[in-house]
Every structure is written in structure tokens, then in C-alpha cells.
Amino acid sequence: MTELSTTGAEPRKYTEVAVGVLIRESDNALLITSRPAGKPRAGWWEFPGGKLEKGETVEQALRRELQEELGITIANCIAWKVTEHSYTHALVRLHWCKVTQWTGEFEMREGQQMSWQQLPLTVQPVLEGSFPVLQWLSEERGLPFDVAQYANAALADGL
Ligand SMILES: Nc1nc2c([nH]c(=O)n2[C@H]2C[C@H](O)[C@@H](COP(=O)(O)OP(=O)(O)OP(=O)(O)O)O2)c(=O)[nH]1
Predict the structure, then answer these.
(1) Pocket test residue of 12, 60, 89, 92 for ligand 1, highest count of atoms within 8 A of CB
(2) Domains defined along the chain, listed by start
């Protein structure tokens, strides 16, 4: 699938990404991780996940990514939302899954950081492609959502 071009330039291809919203049973906290060194927006915060490889389903990609990056094995992957975002470095389609069960101990295999967070998040800046999901999660929980809180931090850090 491609984006329509209005400039006559080659349309950009979507990068398909599987993203996990891991929800901790005891307190509904959300797992947020930092982007490792060497990637665009290194140090920014995101939900864990990564790009689909050829032939993979969203669930397979998420299972592989979370094993590779965090050392855990997910036991469920509840398809939730699909969003799109255009970055200068990529046009991404994000396939969001809720994950409520997993096995294994968390191990940050790419030198990243992890944080169990309640809403609103206290870690910043957050990838702007994740803002819609933060809004939906806030709505589900009956909490206010202020995009400016996230957008200001992203702007300050070079969005
Ligand atoms: N994992 C993740 N990616 C996100 C989120 N929000 C968001 O816009 N993205 C975007 C950022 C990236 O452009 C893309 C994910 O690509 P990536 O480079 O992190 O994926 P990857 O781990 O497979 O990386 P790679 O080393 O194989 O290149 O999705 C999010 O909350 N989590």
C-alpha cells in the first residue's frame, strides 16, 4: 500500500509496525520503553514493538520483537487499533495490540530503559505517532487527555 503523491514524486511506502500495549494486571500500568541508541529519535519513549518482516503477521512480529528486545514471551495479542503517521524518516502504519499475559523476566537487550507508567505519562518526549493511542487509553480510563503536554515536550526535543 502506498500514499498518494501530490508532488509528482514517488509515493512513499508504508512501513508496517507491530506495537504492544502491555498492561500490568495488578495496577493497569502501561509498559513504556526508550528507543535505543542508533535509531531515529534515540532516547525518546514509545510502546515496545518493531517492523514486520516479510511474511510475518502482526502477532508474529510482536512476539519476535518483544523476545528480541525485552526477553519476554507474549501469551496473548489482542488486535486493537491501526494508526498511521508520517515522519521525515518514514511513513508508518502502526498495528496496536493489547497484551495482558506474558512469561519471562524483563531484560533490556538493546540497552534501552523501561518504565511502568500510569496516565498521563511522566516520561518524555514520546513519539508523536503514539499520541492517538495515549488519547484512547485515557478515554477508556475516564482520564483527561492533554495533547499539549506531550507535543510541547516533543517540540522542545526537536520534533
Ligand atoms: N515501537 C514503536 N514504534 C513506534 C511507536 N510510535 C511510532 O510512531 N512508532 C514508529 C517509530 C518508527 O518509525 C517505527 C518503528 O520502527 P523501529 O525502527 O523502531 O522498528 P525496529 O525495532 O524493527 O527497528 P530496526 O532496527 O529493525 O530498524 O514506528 C511506538 O509507540 N512504538
Answers:
(1) 92
(2) 14-120 (3.90.79.10)
